[in-house]
User: Which sequence fits this backbone?
């Protein structure tokens, strides 16, 4: 009987060890860019490149990982009006499938960006890909089309001249899709099974490239979705879109709010630390620090400290309690991608394609390794099964132990 039990259990353990933790959306499972149980290589060079896969067209979206599959989006065509969703094998980099769709909305965007700038998301059963054309595609993990929404058909004025870049998040049975822009600005919650809108709320009429964050104050507490705009941060209930509370002192439109130690870190007045509010009490400002102001990359909270990267490529480490600068480290920037934290290290990829690994200590940070991928990289990486995944327009890479 014992042997029979082991025969059943050991394959399940092997599968879990093989697949590792999923990275199902932009900035990871908790939208905080922290991989708590992963140990990617801390000292890297060219020999750590496990594989690279060719990509078609253009794309600034980050990869996501579900089980033994890696998903990424891109666009081709003179007007970037052909939309692609790619799936690669986690272990080998082999292309498992690719699906193509025609854009139904506007494809005009800034030269630095792409129509495929939004990182896809997954609930473990489905993959949701959104594009700057306001097309939303839902596929199963084998690439079969489940539903598609061309939001521009219903909202033709929802666009801006520089392109849309906010990434969706999945909470329960709802896919939250920001469509915030200069004209018909809104965020909608779509049913993951059908694509039908559960709710739609108006948002400030201004171009906005931030992505939602998830706030869960306790294991038993209901999750809230944080929507950031030039007016501040709204905490909403994902099932209904109703507002739980608001922070109304303004915020940035590129780097996004992050959550750590049940505190919100908002790109507002430099960087602002907020204690979450309730339905009866507004959020409380704990501190503000201009010296921690982030540039394009979002702030990161790790091991009870907060990290930001400024326009000069300087990594700053600050106190969670006060915002006081603890140490600084000049890196080889500039950076668009948000850093990722794992195993007492930060992983930062510059716009020029230089991956830098920073070992953290109480007093300072030290660069312990570099890999020059020699291509422009704007997308935030993913971590799964002790491996990093990075993408440029041309390639998807897996970085792992030698």
Assistant:
């Amino acid at each position: 009987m014992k042997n029979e039990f082991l025969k059943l259990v050991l394959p399940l353990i092997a599968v879990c060890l093989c697949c590792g933790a999923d990275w199902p959306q932009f900035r990871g499972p908790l939208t905080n860019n922290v991989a708590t149980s992963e140990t990617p290589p801390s000292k890297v060079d060219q020999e750590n490149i496990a594989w690279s896969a060719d990509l078609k067209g253009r794309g600034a979206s980050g990869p996501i990982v579900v089980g033994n599959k890696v998903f990424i989006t891109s666009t081709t065509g003179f007007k970037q009006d052909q939309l692609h969703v790619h799936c690669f094998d986690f272990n080998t980099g082999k292309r498992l499938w690719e699906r193509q769709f025609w854009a139904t909305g506007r494809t005009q965007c800034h030269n630095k960006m792409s129509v495929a700038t939004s990182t896809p998301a997954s609930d473990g059963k489905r993959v949701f890909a959104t594009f700057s054309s306001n097309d939303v595609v839902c596929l199963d993990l084998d690439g079969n089309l489940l539903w598609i929404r061309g939001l521009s058909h219903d909202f033709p004025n929802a666009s801006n001249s520089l392109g849309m870049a906010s990434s969706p998040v999945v909470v329960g049975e709802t896919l939250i899709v920001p469509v915030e822009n200069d004209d018909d600005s809104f965020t909608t919650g779509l049913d993951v099974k059908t694509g039908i809108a559960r709710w739609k709320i108006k948002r400030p009429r201004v171009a906005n490239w931030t992505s939602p964050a998830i706030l869960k104050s306790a294991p038993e507490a209901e999750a809230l979705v944080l929507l950031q705009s030039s007016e501040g941060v709204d905490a909403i209930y994902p099932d209904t879109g109703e507002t739980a509370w608001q922070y109304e002192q303004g915020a940035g439109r590129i780097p996004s709010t992050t959550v750590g130690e049940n505190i919100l870190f908002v790109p507002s007045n430099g960087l602002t630390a907020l204690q979450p509010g309730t339905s009866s009490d507004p959020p409380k400002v704990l501190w503000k620090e201009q010296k921690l102001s982030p540039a394009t990359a979002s702030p990161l909270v790790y091991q009870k400290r907060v990290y930001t990267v400024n326009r000069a490529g300087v990594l700053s480490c600050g106190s969670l309690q006060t915002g006081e600068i603890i140490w600084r480290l000049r890196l080889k920037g500039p950076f668009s991608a948000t850093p990722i934290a794992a195993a007492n290290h930060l992983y930062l990829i510059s716009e020029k394609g230089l991956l830098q690994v920073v070992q953290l200590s109480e007093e300072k940070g030290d660069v312990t390794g570099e890999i020059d991928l020699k291509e422009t990289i704007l997308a935030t990486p993913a971590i799964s099964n002790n491996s990093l995944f990075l993408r440029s327009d041309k390639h998807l890479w897996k970085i792992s132990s030698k």
